# Entry
Amino acid sequence: MATEAPPRSRFARTAFGARNERTEKLAGAVFGLMSAAMVVPLVAIVVYLFWLAWPSLGWEFIVDVPRRGMTEGGIWPAFVGTLYLVGMSLAVSAPIGVLAAVYLNEYAKDNWFNRVVNLAVINLAGVPSIVHALFGLGAFVYAARFGYSIISASLTLAIMTLPVIIASTREALASVPMPFREACWNVGATRWQTIKAVVLPNSISGILTGIILQVSRAAGETAPIMFTGAVFFKAVSRGDLFPYALNEQCMALSMHLYTLSTQVPDVKESMQYATAVVLLGSVLLVNAAAIVLRVWLRSRKKW
Amino acid sequence: MSEAAPKIEVEDLRLAYGTKEVIHGITFDVHHNEILAVIGPAQSGKTSMLRCLNRTIDFVAQATVRGTIRVDGEDIRRVRDVFALRRKIGMVAPLPVGLPITIYDNVAFAPRSAGRTRKADLDPIVERCLRQAALWDEVKDRLGSLGTALSGGQQQRLTIARALSHQPEILCLDEFSIAIDPVTTMRIEDVLKELREEMTILLVTNLTQQARRLANRTMFLWNGEIVELDDTDAIFSAETKDPRTRDYVRGVFG
# Structure
């Protein structure tokens, strides 16, 4: 009696299946590689900066003032200046941006006025920073007579970050499902009661993330503050937390980096890189704080 | 019952989204303390009609409403406080929506919005509404957990509890049973029969048998027009005024 062939599995591999599997592997590899490619430059930049900055880095470098025509010492005035500028600009742009976004997303009807506002927001977000700088110079320094000052520079940065904050906040608000709002309206809640009870608590993590991401932008931009309130050098005392009045000019990290690299002869090379590390480090620190905050806020929201 | 003035009077109601008219002039009354069932296939304007009633249609851009709806003789287009109108009407949407706040807050939301914020006031309301919605026993030990963490059927009952929380005089149920099991549906139907003593109920349903079990009168709405509105027994009898009604309830079309 002939041995029977083992029964063929109904899930046996076909040529088509094999091809699919190969494609799947290839696709996974390509996408994975591209993602990895994104990490490489970041790591390279950080390592390179730290390597060259090492000789100058240290707590002293942050809290000390520049000495000997900025060729020695630290960066305290620039560090504090950046804190001032970023803090003040966000103090202006965050509330305005969030409230405007709430209006646009929750209250605004679809009419020509709101379409114009929308268009303005989108276009404002696309304006290059050097143009914001010129606008700030004309509007705040001259027209509003704030002079070259922290106020002018902060307001210029605020104008620059505002449209992005509006856009990110709107996105966060729009991610709250519509039926939640309808359920609230059905029981006689006003729009504001609905926003307060349901919409804001569930979009706050996205809103905050959008705002905090603008910290890095405000801290990094040089052009807008160079025209409106940042200076090469300002004498302040070491470790002074409040060295500036708001109507004075100030130093800033991004500007300082530019100055050290191009304007001052005989600077130790490591000082430029250390400045860059402090700038990058502060921004990364803020972003990390944003991530922690977001994770914490997300853990409290579920649907 | 019928000699008193009706609770709701709808007169030549027309609703258009943009240029497309979806309700073509319907006229009917809803009596005090009756259950009026509205049956009809999809796209016949049932949900839109309810949205006109509590004026949440105002939130839909492009929607134009003509005709009049009177609640207790008062034209709802003219009410000063639309929020007070909505609080008179409990609305249960077809898909369960547990708000992403605690179960307690879900039910307390409406009374709070109306200005009642004392916990001593809210506690009994929350318990009463959850009991009426046949949900109390399942959630009484975890009122602090999120409404969104409940199962679909539980969320639907939470929606019903929320609709009762502002002590409405009119309760509109829009396909309330599509997300819940038959046993729970029966429990809620029993609750509705009791609630009829206190309020007027508009029951939109795709389950014709549900209409038959509960409703005093039944309205067959089709393509934005009333085909027939009569006592439920008459609608489900062999001799309906319009043959389309008979065909629909017997499942011949639609």
Q: What stands out?
A: Chain B has one domain: 8-249. The mean pLDDT of chain B is 86. Strands of chain B lie at 8-17, 20-30, 35-39, 63-71, 74-75, 89-92, 170-174, 200-204, 217-222, 225-231.
